[in-house]
């Protein structure tokens, strides 16, 4: 597509919500966030060159892409990568103790050579020194470790086929902006969305943000090429419903690519809370994670274990695997298994 066509196409799709937003006199926090996120991807506009740089870098510097299909595969992965893991642990400990360190590397999100900003996480207990949480950030695109791992994986998993429909379960985040810049070309349609609350119909657009409930998507059967989500699936109240809904809307050969907090020591998923007719029963202490569209956060329903792969297979997905990235150069040194799951219909 020519650049002028690209500008025209994106101006058309993006301007509508902006105009709506400018008409809104009352600037709630949400609207402010949306304004930023919807306008910025347009300014980011260097998407095609991002992709070129990323492809070029990985052509030269790629490493093994190890697909983990079982607990045994995971053990093998750990054995094969024990040196990297030990180095990563030592580095995480240094950061946790000393803080404020810069680490040179390559960002798989924006495709730039950068100094990742690392700082000491507050009051980290000694047994968690090896988890950096959000403290290793790209100064250019603001991505942190697990999001860069996702960009690396997307670089591997997404094809160059034109006119793909890609559902991304976020819309008001920095990740959305970089994702949009990287993949909104070649006729692709990026359908960003957030969960805006109960009793809203999926597909409804409120102040420029599209609402989608992952358990009841608004998309037609066999219509979507890829569903991408970062730490969304632990917040759905019914994972089986979510998986069959993803299966329903995906085309054959389509993929779910999901970042999930995964508990490698658990064979069976632990259910933290259950929802029935709007009433929530808690089986453990309430666990709340950050939510970009609500200051109340998002309730965590599951700690996933190995049976999550079986759930995807039972729903019909023909291949399901996990990817774990440990690579200092890419700024992925958290050895806590925040793993990405890929399921292919
Ligand atoms: Zn970056």
**Count of DSSP H/I helices:** 9
Number of strands: 17
Residue share in helix: 25-40%
The radius of gyration is 20 Å
Q: Strands, helices and their partners?
A:
Elements: H1 3-23, H2 29-44, H3 47-61, H4 71-80, H5 82-98, E1 101-106, E2 113-118, E3 136-137, H6 145-157, E4 165-168, H7 174-183, E5 189-192, E6 205-206, E7 209-210, E8 224-230, H8 239-249, E9 250-261, E10 270-271, E11 273-276, E12 279-282, E13 288-289, E14 298-299, E15 302-303, H9 307-314, E16 319-323, E17 338-344
Parallel strand pairs: 4-5, 4-8, 8-9
Antiparallel strand pairs: 1-2, 2-3, 6-7, 9-17, 10-15, 11-12, 13-14, 16-17
The structure holds zinc ion.
Describe this structure in words.
With 345 residues, this protein is of the alpha+beta class. The chain has one domain: Vaccinia Virus protein VP39 (Rossmann fold), CATH 3.40.50.150. α1 runs antiparallel to α2, α2 packs parallel to α7 and α3 crosses α7. The longest helix has 21 residues. The radius of gyration is 20 Å and the shape is globular. The two termini are 29 Å apart. The relative contact order is 0.15. The N terminus is likely disordered.
């Amino acid at each position: 597509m020519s650049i002028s066509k690209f500008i025209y196409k994106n101006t058309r799709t993006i301007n509508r919500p902006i105009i709506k937003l400018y008409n809104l006199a009352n600037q709630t926090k949400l609207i402010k966030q949306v304004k930023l996120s919807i306008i910025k991807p347009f300014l980011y506009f260097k998407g095609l060159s991002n992709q070129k740089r990323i492809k070029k870098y990985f052509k030269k510097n790629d490493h093994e892409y190890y697909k983990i299909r079982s607990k045994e595969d995971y053990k093998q992965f750990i054995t094969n990568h024990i040196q990297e893991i030990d180095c990563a642990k030592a580095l995480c400990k240094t950061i946790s103790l000393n803080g404020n360190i810069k680490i040179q590397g390559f960002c798989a999100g924006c495709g730039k050579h950068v100094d990742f900003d690392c700082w000491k996480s507050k009051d980290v207990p000694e047994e968690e020194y090896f988890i950096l949480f959000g403290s290793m950030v790209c100064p250019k695109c603001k991505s942190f470790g697990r999001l860069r791992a996702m960009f690396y994986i997307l670089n591997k998993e997404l094809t160059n086929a034109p006119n793909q429909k890609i559902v991304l379960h976020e819309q008001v985040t920095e990740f959305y902006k970089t994702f949009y810049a990287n993949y909104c070309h070649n006729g692709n349609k990026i359908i960003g969305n957030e969960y805006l609350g109960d009793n809203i119909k999926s597909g409804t657009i409120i102040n420029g943000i599209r609402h989608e409930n992952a358990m009841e998507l608004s998309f037609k059967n066999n219509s979507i090429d890829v569903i991408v989500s970062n730490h969304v699936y632990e917040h759905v109240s019914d994972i089986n419903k979510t998986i069959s809904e993803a299966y329903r809307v995906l085309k054959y050969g389509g993929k779910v690519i999901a970042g999930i907090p995964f508990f490698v020591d658990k064979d069976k998923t632990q259910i933290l809370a259950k929802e029935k007719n709007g009433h929530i029963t808690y089986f453990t202490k309430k666990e709340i994670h950050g939510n970009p569209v609500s200051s109340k956060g998002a309730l965590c329903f599951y700690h996933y274990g190995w049976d999550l792969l079986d759930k995807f297979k039972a729903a019909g997905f023909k291949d399901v695997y996990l990817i774990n990235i440990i690579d200092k150069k890419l700024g992925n040194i958290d050895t806590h298994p925040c793993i990405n799951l890929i399921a292919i219909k």
